Amino acid sequence: MKSIILASTSEYRQALLKKLGLPFLAAAPNIDESPILNESAQALVTRLSQGKANALALQYPQHLIIGSDQVCVINEKIVGKPHSFDNAFKQLKAASGNKVTFYTGLCLLDTETGQFNVQCELFDVYFRQLSDVEITHYLHKEEPYQCAGSFKSEGLGIALFERLDGRDPNTLIGLPIILLLNMLRQHGVNPLVD
């Protein structure tokens, strides 16, 4: 079995991948994550996912490299990580009472053959009407400033929602595991057998 590299230093993505029981290394890809003018959310996350995997290809020439990237779309506007309380407050205020769509790009690159598979997984989150007090308390409790959409669905963020609609709840945390397992099986990696 080829060694697996996760092209991410995200503690959330690493925790998800660890659940599979497969050995892997995590490495930071050094790429420019700026969007291109008029780039769609789907095009952005698939481009960045592939770019992250490619950024580590020379360093890991006989490996399977996983690249992933995520943005959310609120009111037809692409939103990334807030990085601050003020930005997070604005994001959650805009999400209040609305449907927010998460676009998570996933790339699996086999650096030995150059073969890659890149796809985008969508997940819809329907937010309750949130008061300013609820938003403020939530942000102070979880500080989700490094999370696209300004919440952690695996934590107290679940209290912000009316309902969730998607194939794989892991997608919201940043790594679509069901899709990843399909890709890995195509490369002979199956945690139920290996």
Automatic annotation (TrEMBL):
What InterPro entries does the annotation carry? ITPase-like_fam, Maf-like
Q: Which UniProt keywords apply?
A: Cytoplasm, Hydrolase, Nucleotide metabolism
Q: What is its main location?
A: cytoplasm
Q: Which residues form the active site?
A: D69
Give me the segments passing through the membrane: none
Give me the Gene Ontology terms describing cellular component.
cytoplasm
Q: Which reaction does it catalyse?
A: N(7)-methyl-GTP + H2O = N(7)-methyl-GMP + diphosphate + H(+)
Where does the record place the site Important for substrate specificity?
Y12, Q70, E154
- The reply to whether Cytoplasm figures as a keyword in the UniProt entry is yes
* Cofactor(s) it depends on: a divalent metal cation
Q: Where in the cell is it found?
A: Cytoplasm
- Gene Ontology MF, one: nucleoside triphosphate diphosphatase activity
Give the UniProt record's GO annotations in the biological process aspect: nucleotide metabolic process
Q: Which family does it belong to?
A: Belongs to the Maf family. YceF subfamily.
Functional summary from the UniProt entry: Nucleoside triphosphate pyrophosphatase that hydrolyzes 7-methyl-GTP (m(7)GTP). May have a dual role in cell division arrest and in preventing the incorporation of modified nucleotides into cellular nucleic acids.
Do you know which NCBIfam families this protein is assigned to? maf
Mind telling me what this protein is named? 7-methyl-GTP pyrophosphatase
| Native species | Providencia heimbachae ATCC 35613
* Organism lineage: Bacteria, Pseudomonadati, Pseudomonadota, Gammaproteobacteria, Enterobacterales
